[in-house]
Amino acid sequence: METTDVLARAAALPCWTAPEGARMLEGGKTNQNILITDAGKRFVVRFGYDIPEHGILRWHELMVNRAAVAAGLSPAIRYSAPGVLVSEFVEALPITAQDLAQPRAIEDLAALLRRVHVDTTRHLSGPVLSFWVFHILRDYARQLAERGSPHLPLIPALLAEAEGLEQAIGPVSMVLGHNDLLPGNILKGADRLWLIDWEYAGLGSPLFDLGGLASNNGFTEAQERLLLAAYYDASATDALWHRYQAMKCASLLRETMWSMVSEIISNLDVDFATYTADNLSAYRAALAALNA
User: Which BP terms does GO give this entry (predicted)?
Assistant: First the structure.
C-alpha cells in the first residue's frame, strides 16, 4: 500500500475526534507505523496482518499487549480492530549503547524482563502460543525447502548445529517471553522503560529473552554476566553460563533464518539479504565462542 493510502487509512479510523498531522514512522519489518495527533494528544497507529510463516497472529499479539498494558509495561491502547492497533504515544526513544553504559542500566533491564516473565503472565487471558526456538528453526527450514530458497545449501549444517544447541540448553522453565528485544522495541523515557511490539510473544524459556537482549544490543561479556546476576539474583554458574550462551546462539540463528524466510515472503521495503548476512555472521561468531 502506498504511503498516502496508509496515512489516509490511519486518519479515517473511527476512534478519532479531529485527526491531523499523520506521518510514517521508521522501523517495523512486519508492519507499518503512523504517528497521528487527535484532540491535542499523539497516538501510534500500527497496521499489520497475520504472518503465519513467522507465527504472527494479530489476535494473540493484541491479547498479550493488553496484558502488558495491565502490567504497566506498554502504552495504553486507544483502539483495536483486525489488522490495526492504536496506542498512546509516549515520550521515549529506543535504548542506545550510551543508555546501557549508565549506572544500573543493566539491572533495570533485568528487572524489566522479570516483570515480563512474571507480571505480564498473570494478566494473560485465553489461549497462549508457545515460542520454542528449535521448533521455529525446524519449521523455517521446511519453509525454505518448500519455497526453493537460495540458502538451502546452508540449512543441513545449521540444523545440525541447532540440535547441538538444543541439547546443550536442556530442560527449561516456562515463562511468557517477549522474544523480540531489538533496540527499537525497548523505549527509554525520562524515568522509566517501555516495551512495545508483542507479535512474537509466547511461552518459552527466559534464556531466549536474556540472550536476545544481549545479542541484539551488543552487550559486552561483563554486561551479560551482570544481566544474568541481576535476573537470577546470583552470579551465573558455569553451567548456566554455557546454557545461556547456547540460547544466545539459537537466538541469532533464529534471526538469521527469520530473515531468510522474509527474503521470500515479505513485500516491505527492507534489505533482508543484508540482514541475513549480518545475522549469519554474528551467529557464527557466537557459536565459535561457545565452542572455543
Answer: phosphatidylethanolamine biosynthetic process
Tell me what pLDDT residue 267 has. 85
The cell numbers describing 48, all together, are 499489520
Digit-coded pLDDT (tens) for 177-210: 999 999 999 999 999 999 999 999 999 999 999 9
Count of all residues that appear for the chain in the document:
292
Q: What is the pLDDT of residues 67-109, one digit of tens each?
A: 999 999 999 999 999 999 999 999 999 999 999 999 999 999 9
Q: How far apart are CA 8 and CA 94, in angstroms?
A: 27
- Residue 238 has a CB neighbour count (10 Å cut-off) of 7
Nearby residues of 168 by Cβ (< 8 Å), 6 or more positions away: 242, 243, 246, 290
CA angle in degrees (0–180, nearest 5) for 187-69-259: 55
Task: Give the C-alpha separation, 6 to 142, whole Å.
Answer: 33
Q: Which helix (H) or strand (E) holds 42?
A: strand 41-47
Structural domains for the chain: 3-88 (3.30.200.20), 93-291 (3.90.1200.10)
- 79 φ/ψ angles, rounded to the nearest 5 degrees: -160, 150
